[in-house]
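pasting for the record
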Amino acid sequence: MAVTIYHNPRCSKSRKTLQIIRDAGVEPTIILYLEEAPGAAEILDLAAKLGVPLSNLLRRGEKVVKEAKDLPALDNDVALAAWMEAHPITLQRPIVVDMASGKAVVGRPPENVADLLS
């Protein structure tokens, strides 16, 4: 099984999700998205795989979002994806993708990943 996790090791939900994946006998590809920020096209692709509007992937409680003077309209996916690329801390986490099926889940709660692993 080929699984990719967009991971922030400082996030307890992300660490727990990674542990669930490993406990299932799967060693995922780990993308440390704060160090290797996904591009705008990749962010749009993640939203499509999740089946949610891009605005659902925006962590609205982050300080950078609350204080942003340049945050685009939340219904402008192209502009929002570009903004999120420039501010990767604002991307919901963790996101886990089953590369074979193209399906994805957000690990909030971490147990959501069980849907991909079964």
